[in-house]
Amino acid sequence: MICVLLVAGHGAVLEAQIKNDDTGLYRHLAGVPKAMLPGIGGKKILDFWWETVNLRQLFTEVYLVTNADKYKHYERWATANDFPVENIVNNGSTTLQDQLGAVADLVLAVRSRRLQDDIMVIAGDMLCADQNFDIGQVVRFFRSKPGELIIFYELEDGEESSSRGIVEVCPETHRITRFLEKPQEGETVSRLASVVFYCIQKDTLSYMSQFLELQQEAPQKTFGQFWEWLVNEKRMDVFGMKLPTGFQLIGQVGLSDYTKWLTHYSAKKQDCMAVAITCRSYARVGLMGNPSDGFNGKTIAMTISNFWAEVTLLESQTLALVPHPLNDPTEFGSLQDLFCISRKEGYLGGLRLLQATCKKFYQFCSKQGIALTKQNFTLKYDTNIPRQVGLAGSSAIVSATLKCLMKFYNITDADLPKPIRANFILSVETEELFITAGLQDRVVQVYEGLVYMDFSKHLMEQQGYGSYVSMDMKNLPTFWLAYLSDPSDSGRIHSNIRQRWLNGEDTVLEAIKSFAELTDQARTAIENQDWISLAQLMDQNLDLRRSIYTDDCLGPGNMMMIRLARQFGSAVKFPGSGGAVVGLCLDQAKLISRMKRKLIFPGKICVSFRRGPTGFLRQDPSDEAKRIKKNPELQDKSAPQREEKVKENALSKVFIRGGDTSDRQEVLGEYVLQFGKYKGKSFRWLLENDIGYTIYLINKVEEEERAGLFNAEGPKKESLFSFLDYTRHFHEIRDLRNCLAERSVEPPSSSEDNQLVGFGVHSKKTWKDVWEKREDGYASFILRKQCVSGSKMFLLQQYLKKKEAQTQSSSEPALTKPSSSPPVSSLEMEDDEELERMMLSVSPSKLLPLQEQRHLVKKMTGPTCLETIPTQPSSLSKGLDAAAATATAAAGT
Questions:
Q1: Quick one: pLDDT at residue 247?
Q2: Omega before 325 within 30 of 0, i.e. cis
Q3: Residues 6 or more apart from 294 whose CB is under 8 A from it?
Q4: Distance in angstroms (rounded) separating the CA atoms of residues 161 and 189
Q5: Across-strand partners of 460?
Q6: What is d(CA 746, CA 6) in angstroms, rounded to the nearest whole number?
């Protein structure tokens, strides 16, 4: 049986009441997901459920479904509580309006993780008073019944049945005879209310997909509606089990009901607490002209409500800046947890932004002659803006902090006008934190909405700021936004172009002028609601940017998003400095259909070989492969996985994208390498990025097989063997090897002395040169090596042995004796040292006879894929867990 914990809800009553609480007692819980609130004894609610279901004898796997807004909270919780992070499913929603609904969340988990077993579904935000609650009895009761199981409890006094799903249960058979979702008064006398705690048979899971198809237009797809349909209309066998007393569904109760479980906090209550000040600033999308804002150009940008930064200021005895639990972690689950977080997110969180803003604010007020009262405060922040994807996440935190400080100290717009406020925010980042940035982001976050900005040099010099015009945005078309899951620092992309601009390079100066012209045309198109022209201008903006930055500077991830967007027929451009793209497609339905088909369910993905101008396969590593080989930080150092686990993950990937799981070749393409510098990359990725390394592996193994030395033992060798099995079915590789073999044939030398070494750093030397210059230690090195029979090194070794034998009776020193010159301590291997050691360290006692190895090779049939289509990127789709977000413009101030 499999357990799925649902924690993907938005806007719960309790969360809203905690956030708006004016007592000060629960403010530290604001923004905390419901399931991570304290339960009995201060233990988090989710901790209780995880401990309850973390029983291998009951559940083979436990999954958790959350939303994009709270995903990082649960990811951090998982690493600290030994919950498998790969079992967290992100449904991609960021607001209450775009949430999928509980049924769709479960279907997402089933499809994305290819679940094929009975499932227990639990709301992870449900309090249980009985800490010794035995979940095993629920499983046993479910298995004793020929149908589904719904858990219910009896409503307490004061609870209205109209707010719950009500069940009518046969007391003899425990079968649910009728299910009513939030019935009207008098519709039923039952006081038995169901909660999100069910057991569902695997054969019934298909009914959920059928239900979702029938409810496509419904705003929410709740389990109450599903059970109402399944019980009342489909007449399926569904049974009920009553919960012990003391259960509370936190997602549907208020703060007063929750506080009885949190009495240990009452001692901390203060008699007088100031009202907290909370301010938000939104992420920014540049629609036209960027990045010319930093070069006296013109731009149009808008704020979007999907992503935001929120800062809360509360009066306190001392001034305190509270680290964010995700972005400024000070506690970690383990040393490995610290390593993984630091490696992925670095060391620069948002706390530095709060501190720099406060310092700059005090400096500004002192300079402006504004006397500040002697009040201290506690400042904390929260944000869901993706990091380092050019959506102005840093400036949003600074902007929200400034709003709080202005309210707290009663600084008016007259004291700090909006144009100056934008300059202030920019100065915090550029002067205090040395972040490369322009004014566009700060202006649009101060004004909010859709803003036209002119940063012409004469305006900036004359008044210190540009001309900013708020535009009507109520009739704007729908834009879409996509971003990379693992981007680089967006600030680095500006460095070269700024210097070229400062140097007066004609190409850059002309481009900045063209950006301004495009912006003016876009303003006219928006005012006239000419969306066709706007789409064309967006494409021109992008092409102009590519011409001066170059695609290499923009990066492969960004270019992949661009290619896919244009393939889908959408106008596209960068909304910021890189890491994300914003698009406009006039046929929204067609765009969504194409994106779902190609990104979420693209079907079969074939290998896209890199070819040279004449059509031959390129053997050099791609830029991405070069970066991995040169940077150990990018290499996967985790323990290798067994073949069974690798296959299971590959099957899941093929299933999720709608591929054919019975096609072994397609499944092998999703296998992940378990050896070498490219460990963690798929077999298909290796063929697409380093054919030369692939040829090296094939040749190396064939040499070992000919010598009877190959041993397919251990995860690394299993992975290598499977990879070779995968490559056998590509005629492109066979053709390349044949070509290389023909090219490598050398004319016979007149004698052994004139034979070339043919490998390593001495490949151009003759055998005679090696013998005559044996004092350098290289000949001794060759004689000590265990060589594969028939290889070039083996033939050279035989020649040296013959020469050494001829010198035994002479006065020449034997190579086995110490030389006056220091011997070569090591010889740098040409390709992958780890793989070379793995191959050369085979114990002879463990070798399999050659004929026993042959049966390990499974021959495969079927045509070789020749079609070239883009691989499925996590950049646009962010896997199945997060689809491209619709950028909704935030309302103006």
A1: 64
A2: no
A3: 437, 438, 439, 494, 498
A4: 9
A5: none
A6: 67
For residue 832, the model assigns a pLDDT of 47
Residue 369 has pLDDT above 70, yes or no: no
Of 46, 542, 571, 612, the C-alpha closest to 289 is 542
Order of strands, sheet of 580-584, starting from the edge strand that comes earlier in the sequence: 571-573, 580-584, 479-483, 885-887
Percentage of the chain beyond pLDDT 70 is 82
Angstrom distance (rounded) from CA 827 to CA 794: 16
Strands 148-154, 238-242: pairing is parallel
Give yes or no for residue 712 having a pLDDT over 80.
no
**CA 811 and chain centroid, separation:** 69
The C-alpha angle 422, 424, 426, rounded to 5 degrees, equals: 70
Residues in CB range of 314: below 8 A, 6 or more apart: 24, 27, 273, 274, 276, 277, 377, 378
List Cα–Cα distances, 136 to 59, 79, 410, 637, in angstroms: 10, 26, 59, 39
Angstrom distance (rounded) from CA 93 to CA 73 = 15
> Which residues contact residue 175 at a Cβ distance below 8 angstroms, ignoring those fewer than 6 apart?
147, 169, 237, 238, 239, 240
**Secondary structure (DSSP) of 674-724:** -SSTTTTSBHHHHHHH-HHHHHHHHHHHHHHHHTT-----SHHHHHHHHHH
Burial class (CB in 10 A: 0-12, 13-18, 19+), 552: exposed
H/E stretch holding 741 reads helix 731-744
Predicted confidence at residue 500, as pLDDT, reads 84
Distance of CA 862 to the CA centre of its chain: 34
Q: How far apart are the first and last CA of the chain?
A: 52
Of 229, 216, 202, 222, the C-alpha closest to 142 is: 202
Backbone CA torsion sign across 717, 719, 721, 727: negative
> Any idea how long the chain is?
893
Q: Whole-angstrom Cα distance, residue 564 to residue 139?
A: 46
Is the pLDDT at 122 greater than 60? The verdict is yes
**Beta-strand (E) ranges in 259-391?**
277-288, 298-315, 320-321, 377-383
**Secondary structure tally for the chain: helices H, strands E:** 33, 21
Which whole number is the average pLDDT over 436-452?
92
Which carries the bigger pLDDT value, residue 495 or residue 822?
A: 495
Distance CA 553, CA 578 (A): 10
How many Å apart are CA 145 and CA 700, to the nearest integer? 59
Angle subtended by helix axes 351-368 and 393-408, to nearest 10:
50
| Average confidence (pLDDT) over 825-849 | 38
How many CB atoms lie under 10 A from the CB of residue 805? 10
Q: How many CB atoms lie within 10 A of CB 216?
A: 7
Q: Which residues are catalytic?
A: 441
State the CB neighbour count (10 A cutoff) for residue 36.
Answer: 21
Q: What is the pLDDT of residues 732-764, one digit of tens each?
A: 898 888 887 776 544 444 568 888 888 877 888
Q: How many CB atoms lie under 10 A from the CB of residue 841?
A: 8
The H or E element spanning position 797 is helix 792-806
- Return d(Cα 419, Cα 409) in angstroms, integer: 20
Phi, psi (5° rounding) for residue 261? Answer: -95, 0
Give me 307's structure tokens.
Answer: 């992503």
At a CB cut-off of 8 Å and minimum separation 6, what does 52 contact? Answer: 133, 135
Average pLDDT score over the chain: 80
Q: What is the pLDDT of residues 335-363, one digit of tens each?
A: 877 887 777 777 778 999 999 999 999 98
pTM score over 0.70: no
Q: Where are the alpha helices (DSSP H) in 177-275?
A: 205-214, 223-228, 255-258
Query: What stretches of 243-334 show up as alpha helix (H) in DSSP?
Result: 255-258
